[in-house]
Design a protein that fits this description.
The chain is α/β, with parallel strands linked by helices. The chain has 44 helices and 26 strands. Helix 35 (828-847) crosses helix 37 (874-882). The longest helix has 20 residues, at 828-847. The protein is globular and about 95 Å long.
Length: 1014
C-alpha cells in the first residue's frame, strides 16, 4: 500500500503524519535504536530546510549510531506508514532533503571508510563520509576521489550519489555515476540488496535489472528522441544504463552496472548502506591560467575553443562574484592576483598531469590561443600550487558568495544547472540575459564552462512576486534549453524546484517508465516521496522557507527592539543595478536583526573541519543544533513565530546558542556573512532581560570594576584557588568548574606599578603625531593590566626602544574598559557605557592620527567590531580606524620603514596559536611577519580552531568537557608534541587553556620581543 499523507489535495511528502503517529514513532525509535531521537519543534525545524528556497517540517529526526539503527528505523517507519528521508550534509539546492518524513541524518556516525584496495584503486564507504575527509585518508596512497564538488568540505558521499554530483573537473573524470562501482542498499521492504555489475548480481538485484532492461527496450525510440545527449544530465532515473545516451558512457567497457540506477535517484528508490567507488591517481602537477575578458559573451564564446587544449577544468567567475569576493577580506588578496584591470568575467583554466613541463607548455598554448582569438595579454599564469589552491577555494565558495547580497531579493536556484552543448553556450547565455531583463531582474553567473553547465540564479524576492517570476523564467529558459538540445537538470538534481520538469524534458512515456522503476523498487512509496515522481509544483508558496502573503501561512517577523545596530542589513536591493536603499529602510520590524539572521542560506560551509575557526562547537559535537547554520535556523524560526510567540527568549534558542563561543569564525569564514557571535550578544540581552542575571553573570561582567579593589587585598580574592574545598563550593554556588584554576589577582598591576619613564602626556603625543614623529597610545586592557601586567610593560618597553612616544589612557578611579566582559553576558547597556567612555578618552588621540595599540585581541578588536554597533556614532568609527593589535601595528610600521629594532637570535622553535578574533580579522599573519625580525626564528602556526576557553565559557562547569574537547582537537596535542618550543598566544584565555591542559606556559608576543631585544 502506497504511503500518502492525509488530504488528497496535498502533494506527497509535504504533510507530516498525524501527531499520534509521530509520537508513537518517537517512542519506538527511542526504545528500539541507540540513536538520537529528535522530535521537538526546534530540532525538526533545523532539518526542515536545505540550501534551497523550500521548507517542509519533518515528522521527526533520527541520528543513528550504527547501521542496525537505520535498518530498525526503516522497519518501524514501514509499519507506521511514515516516509523516510536520508540526509547527509543537508546542502541540496533543489529541496531534495526536505520532506514530511522521518529524516535520518547519516553524517554524524555513519562516516567510516570500510575497505580500501589501493592496487585496484577502489574504496567502500558509508554514506555519511564527507568527500574531503575521504580524500585526506586517500592522499598518503597517492589517490583521490575526483568528483570534486564545490561543497567538498561538507558534502557526504551518500548525498553526492543521491544528486549524481559532478564537480569542476567532470570534463576529465566524469560525474558521480561514472565513478561508482557498486552500492549496498535497503529496499522499502527491509531487504538489503547489493547493486553492481549485472553479471555479479544476486537474485533480487538481477530481477530488478531484468525489469529495467525490459523497460529500456520498450521505450528505445522515445529514449533516442527525448534523452539529452550531454554528459551533464542528472534528471529522472538512469534508465539509459541499458541504452547509453550520454556523451560519456557510464562504464569504460560499455557494460551495465545496476548501481548506476541509484545514482541521481535522490534517495527515492532505496536507502544506501554503503558505496564502492572508483579512485583516481592524484595528479603530480597542476598549473592554472586565469583568462580575463572584457565581456561576458566573449568568455562564453571562448570556452569551446579552450577545451580543445585538454584542460581538466574551465570555470567561470562573473563580475558580480568578482566584486563580492573583493569585498570579502578572506578572499580579496587572492582574487586581486588573478585580475588584469576590471574584467567582466574570468575563466579559470586548469591543466594537470604527470609532466610539469608539458603543463607549462599547455599554459603557453592557452596564452597563444587567446591571442589568436583577439585577446592578447589576457592570461594570468599561476603555476604555484599554493596560489592555485587559494583561488580554487574562492571559486568553491562562489554560490555562497553570491548569496551574500543584502535585502530580501536573493539569487534563486531553479534553472541554474541547465546544460547545453558548448557551441551554443554563448547564445544560450545571451538568451537568458534577455529573459531576466524582461522580468526585471538579472542573473548571477558562475559555471563549469568546460561542460556547458551554467550556475545562473536570477535575483528574486520569494516573499512577494518571486514565485510568479520564477515560473515565467523557467518556462522561457526551458524553451532555450530545448532549442539548443540541452538538459534542464545538469548537476544539482531535480528535487522540488525541477521535479515537475522531468516529464517536460523526457515526455509522458518515459515519465511513466520512471514511475514503473519507482514502483518496482519502492512499491509503498516509503522513500522520499514527492521527488522525481509526483512532485509538487515548483512555485507552491506553501513550501517556501519565506512563504509569500498568498500562502496559507505567510512568513512574518515578530517585532523586537534590538540592542545592537543591525540597520546595515535592513535594506532592499535593486536586482538589476545592485544598488541598496539606505540603512534602516528595509521595512524589517526587528531593525534588521532578522534580515541578518536570514542571510544564512543553509549552504553548510560551517560544517567544515579544515583550516579556519568555524564552527568549533560543531567540530566536537557534530550536532546540527551546535552549528552556525543550526543556530541561524533556530533564530529564524523563533523570530518568525514558528516556535511560538515567545520563542526568541525561550529555552530552544537558549539551548542552540549555549555552545556558541563567540569566536567570530563565522564573521570571516561564512561566505554570506552570518555573524553569530554578535547575534548571541543580541539574544543574551533579551534573554537575560527576561529571565534575570545570575551571581556568576554579575561577577564576570563587573570584573573590570572590582579589579582595583581586589589588588588591595588579592589574598582574599585568591582564596578560591588555595583553600581546600573552595573550588568545589564555587562550582556549586557560581557554576565555575572546580577543575579549573582561576586567574590570580595581584597587587602589582600595571596601573599601580607603572613605569612613568615609558609614557608621556596626551598633549605631547598628539603634538608629536601632528609633527610626524613616531607615537602611539597603548590601550592596556583589564587582563593584561590587572592579571598579566608583564605583557603591558613588555609592549611599552619594545615600542619605547623602537623610538615611539607613548601615552596610555587611564582614570583616577580605575582604568578604561572596552565593555567586553559585559557583552559576553549580554549586558549591552553597561557595555555601551564603558565602551563609550573609552572611545571618548581615545577620540582626541585618534583624531590626531595617533595609532591605538592593544594587546588583548578580544578587547582591542571590540573597538573595531561591537563598538560600531552600539550607537556610539561617528566617534566610534574614528577610533576604530586607528585601533591596531600590537603585531598589526609593528608589521605596518615595518612595511613603512619606521620600525627598526635589533633582536637576539632564538634557538628554540616557536609555536604560535592564533586567538579566534585575530583569525576573524586576518590578524594572525602580522604576527608571523613580526617574528621574522628575530634571527633564526622558525615560527610554526598551529592549525587549530578555538582553544575552548572563549572568555568565561571554559571556566563554566557546564561547558568544561566541551571546552577541553575543543582544545584537544588540535591545540593541546600540538603543544605537547613540541616540549622544546616557545609557545606564543596573544589571548589571555588561550594562555590559560594551554596552562591548564598542557601544563605549559604560553607567552604574549610582546614578552618574547622584550626578552630578545639586543
Amino acid at each position: 500500500m502506497r504511503i500518502d499523507p492525509p488530504g488528497h489535495l496535498q502533494p506527497a511528502g509535504t504533510v507530516p503524519p498525524p501527531n499520534e503517529v509521530c509520537a508513537l514513532l518517537a517512542r519506538r525509535l527511542a526504545a528500539e535504536t541507540e540513536g538520537e531521537v529528535l522530535f521537538d519543534a526546534a530540532s525538526r525545524g533545523r532539518y526542515a530546510t536545505d540550501a534551497s528556497i523550500y521548507q517542509i517540517m519533518p515528522a521527526g529526526v533520527l541520528v543513528p549510531k550504527n547501521e542496525r539503527d537505520v535498518a530498525t528505523a526503516i522497519d518501524i517507519a514501514r509499519e507506521l506508514q511514515v516516509p523516510v528521508l536520508a540526509r547527509g550534509g543537508g546542502t541540496s539546492q533543489c529541496g531534495q532533503t526536505t520532506g514530511a518524513a522521518l529524516v535520518i541524518d547519516n553524517s554524524k556516525h555513519l562516516r567510516r571508510m570500510l575497505e580500501l584496495d589501493v592496487s585496484a584503486r577502489r574504496v567502500t564507504v558509508q554514506p555519511g563520509l564527507v568527500l574531503d575527509h575521504l580524500n585526506a585518508q586517500l592522499k598518503p596512497h597517492g589517490l583521490w576521489f575526483p568528483v570534486d564538488v564545490s561543497t567538498s568540505a561538507q558534502a557526504t558521499l551518500g548525498g553526492m550519489a543521491g544528486n549524481n554530483s559532478c564537480g569542476s573537473r567532470s570534463i576529465a573524470y566524469g560525474n558521480m555515476v561514472h565513478n561508482v562501482l557498486g552500492a549496498s542498499a535497503w529496499l522499502s521492504d527491509g531487504a538489503l540488496v547489493d547493486f553492481g555489475p549485472v553479471a555479479t548480481l544476486g537474485a533480487r538485484a538481477a530481477d530488478i535489472a531484468l525489469y529495467v532492461k525490459q523497460l529500456a527496450g520498450q521505450h528505445r525510440a522515445d529514449i533516442a528522441e527525448r534523452w539529452p545527449k550531454v554528459m551533464r544530465r542528472v534528471a529522472g532515473y538512469n534508465l539509459d544504463i541499458f541504452d547509453n545516451q550520454s556523451e560519456r558512457p557510464y562504464t569504460a567497457d560499455g557494460s551495465v552496472n545496476l548501481a548506476h540506477l541509484l545514482i541521481g535517484a535522490e534517495g527515492t528508490l532505496a536507502y544506501t548502506r554503503s558505496l564502492t567507488l572508483q579512485l583516481s591517481e592524484l595528479p603530480r602537477a597542476k598549473v592554472l591560467g586565469i583568462v580575463n575578458f572584457a565581456s561576458f559573451h566573449a568568455a562564453m564564446d571562448s570556452a569551446q575553443h579552450i577545451v580543445k587544449l585538454g584542460p581538466t577544468a574551465v570555470e567561470l567567475v562573473d563580475r558580480t562574484m568578482i566584486e563580492l569576493s573583493l569585498a570579502n577580506p578572506a578572499f580579496r588578496p587572492t582574487v586581486e592576483k588573478a585580475l588584469i584591470g576590471k574584467p567582466a568575467a574570468i575563466l579559470l583554466v586548469e591543466f594537470s598531469g604527470e609532466d610539469r613541463a608539458e603543463l607549462l607548455y599547455r599554459l603557453q598554448r592557452l596564452a597563444e590561443l587567446m591571442g589568436d582569438l583577439g585577446l592578447p595579454d589576457s592570461v594570468v599564469r599561476m603555476p604555484e600550487e599554493a596560489a592555485q589552491k587559494a583561488l580554487w577555494e574562492v571559486r568553491k565558495a562562489g554560490l555562497n558568495i553570491m548569496m551574500s547580497l543584502k535585502g530580501d531579493g536573493k539569487p534563486v536556484s531553479f534553472i541554474e544547472d541547465c546544460a547545453v552543448p558548448l557551441e551554443h553556450l554563448a547564445a544560450y547565455t545571451d538568451g537568458l540575459t534577455e529573459v531576466f531583463a524582461k522580468h526585471g531582474t538579472r542573473g548571477t553567473w558562475y559555471a563549469h564552462a568546460s561542460v556547458g553547465t551554467l550556475h545562473v540564479r536570477p535575483i528574486l524576492d520569494m516573499r512577494t512576486d518571486g514565485a510568479a517570476k520564477m515560473r515565467a523564467i523557467a518556462e522561457e529558459a526551458g524553451a532555450l534549453v530545448r532549442k539548443y538540445k540541452g538538459a534542464f537538470s545538469g548537476e544539482h538534481g531535480d528535487g522540488l524546484c525541477r521535479g515537475e520538469w522531468i516529464e517536460w524534458q523526457f515526455g509522458p512515456s518515459i515519465n511513466e517508465a520512471f514511475r514503473a522503476i519507482k514502483n518496482k523498487l519502492d512499491p509503498i512509496g516509503l522513500f522520499n516521496p514527492g521527488k522525481i515522481i509526483d512532485p509538487p509544483k515548483m512555485d507552491d508558496g506553501a513550501l517556501f522557507r519565506f512563504a509569500p502573503a498568498s500562502a496559507p501561512q505567510p512568513y512574518r517577523r515578530i517585532p523586537i527592539s534590538p540592542v545592537l545596530d543591525w540597520s546595515a542589513w535592513n535594506v532592499q536591493a535593486d536586482p538589476v543595478t545592485e544598488e541598496t536603499t539606505p540603512p534602516g529602510s528595509g521595512g524589517d520590524v526587528t531593525g534588521g536583526f532578522a534580515k541578518a539572521v536570514e542571510m544564512c542560506n543553509n549552504n553548510g560551509h560551517c560544517r567544515k573541519f579544515d583550516a579556519g575557526t568555524m564552527c568549533p562547537s560543531y567540530r566536537v559535537t557534530r550536532d546540527e543544533q551546535h552549528l552556525t547554520r543550526g543556530r541561524a535556523n533556530t533564530l529564524r524560526l523563533a523570530l518568525s513565530g514558528q516556535l511560538g510567540p515567545d520563542a526568541f527568549t525561550g529555552e530552544a534558542v537558549r539551548d542552540a546558542m549555549d555552545l556558541c563561543v563567540g569566536c567570530k569564525g563565522c564573521k570571516r569564514d561564512c561566505p554570506t556573512g552570518v555573524d553569530m557571535a554578535k547575534m548571541k550578544i543580541e539574544f543574551l540581552a533579551h534573554y537575560k532581560r527576561k529571565h534575570g542575571r545570575t551571581l556568576a553573570d554579575r561577577l564576570i561582567a563587573r570584573l573590570p570594576e572590582y579589579l582595583h579593589t581586589a589588588r588591595r587585598m588579592p589574598w582574599l580574592f585568591n582564596l578560591r584557588n588555595r583553600v581546600p574545598g573552595a573550588a568545589w563550593l564555587g562550582e556549586r554556588v557560581l557554576g565555575l568548574s572546580a577543575r579549573r584554576s582561576l586567574p590570580e589577582f595581584r597587587s602589582d598591576t600595571f596601573w599601580s606599578e607603572r613605569d612613568a619613564t615609558l609614557f608621556t602626556s596626551r598633549d605631547m603625543v598628539i603634538a608629536a603625531a601632528c609633527s610626524g614623529r613616531k607615537s602611539a597610545v597603548l590601550f592596556v586592557d583589564t587582563f593584561n593590566g590587572g592579571f598579566e601586567s608583564e605583557n603591558a610593560w613588555a609592549a611599552a618597553r619594545v615600542l619605547k626602544a623602537a623610538g615611539y612616544l607613548l601615552h596610555t589612557v587611564e582614570k583616577f578611579s580605575g582604568h578604561y574598559c572596552c565593555g567586553r566582559t559585559y557583552l559576553a553576558q549580554g549586558w549591552v547597556e553597561e557595555a555601551k557605557a564603558h565602551a563609550g567612555a573609552l572611545v571618548d578618552a581615545l577620540l582626541p588621540l585618534a583624531e590626531a592620527g595617533v595609532p591605538i595599540v592593544g594587546l588583548e585581541p578580544s578587547c582591542l578588536l571590540t573597538l573595531r567590531d561591537e563598538a560600531l554597533a552600539m550607537g556610539l556614532g561617528d566617534k566610534a568609527k574614528t577610533v576604530a580606524a586607528q585601533a591596531l593589535l600590537f603585531e598589526e601595528f609593528i608589521a605596518r610600521e615595518m612595511r613603512e620603514g619606521r620600525f627598526k629594532l635589533a633582536f637576539q637570535p632564538v634557538e628554540k622553535p616557536i609555536l604560535l596559536h592564533g586567538h579566534c578574533h585575530q583569525k576573524a580579522f586576518g590578524a594572525v599573519s602580522p604576527i608571523l611577519e613580526v617574528l621574522k625580525l628575530i634571527p633564526d626564528a622558525r615560527p610554526e602556526l598551529i592549525e587549530s580552531s578555538c582553544c575552548g576557553m572563549a572568555g568565561s565559557f571554559g571556566y563554566e562547569a557546564s561547558h568544561y568537557e566541551v571546552s577541553m574537547r575543543m582544545a584537544e582537537a588540535a591545540l593541546l596535542p600540538a603543544v605537547r608534541s613540541r616540549p622544546d618550543a616557545i609557545v606564543l598566544a596573544d589571548g589571555t584565555s588561550c594562555r590559560h587553556q594551554i596552562a591548564d591542559g598542557a601544563q605549559r606556559q604560553a607567552v604574549h608576543v610582546a614578552r618574547l620581543l622584550d626578552a630578545l631585544m639586543a
